[in-house]
From TrEMBL:
Superkingdom field: Bacteria
Phylogenetic lineage: Bacteria, Pseudomonadati, Bacteroidota, Flavobacteriia, Flavobacteriales
InterPro entries: IPExxxVDY_fam (IPR047690)
Identification of the protein by name: IPExxxVDY family protein
Naturally occurring in which organism (per UniProt): Algibacter marinivivus
Length: 162
């Protein structure tokens, strides 16, 4: 009996996108406003945040679909802080100790210091990507911004928003 082997290397191509890391201390809505103003985009808050690992982390997301160029722009926060109460009972005292602990989670744990990611669902030429980066770096409230090679990401499945 003949054995047939299917090779699916070309069927499952990796999605092409440009990923820009942004370091700043701005609130998400303020950063979206400044990007809209300086890049000529129209990012708007999605009705629901991105929720990963059963409510362990919730990340705000702003999105704009450019129908002329068939490009989707997404601004997503990388840091999620959750405050939990830690109950410890010390039997040697008369009072219960209740402490609040803040836990920090990242959307992409390999980039812990990045505040926001700008994901553009299209692979731009080097000159267009450089123009976008230069426009972002001209915003005085942004400390730095740089491109990230998506092929080197370990947790790239967290960047699938749909």
């Amino acid at each position: 009996m003949a054995v047939h082997k299917l090779i699916l290397d070309d069927v499952f191509e990796e999605a092409l996108y440009t990923l820009i890391a942004i370091h700043c201390r701005l609130e998400d809505y303020r950063l979206a406003y400044l990007l809209n103003k300086n890049l000529g985009v129209t990012l708007s808050r999605k009705p629901s945040d991105i929720d990963y690992k059963n409510g362990q982390g919730s990340y705000s997301i702003f999105e704009w679909e450019d129908h002329k160029q068939l490009v989707t722009w997404s601004l997503v926060s990388n840091i999620c802080k959750i405050e939990e109460e830690l109950h410890q009972t010390d039997f040697t005292s008369l009072f219960d100790n209740q402490q609040k602990v803040t836990k920090t989670f990242q959307l992409l744990p390999e980039h812990k210091t990045v505040n926001y990611f700008l994901k553009i669902d299209s692979e731009f030429s080097f000159s267009k990507e450089k123009y976008i980066l230069d426009s972002i770096l001209k915003i005085p409230q942004i400390a730095t911004a740089y491109s990230i090679d998506s092929s080197e990401l370990k947790s790239k499945e967290n960047l699938i928003f749909n």
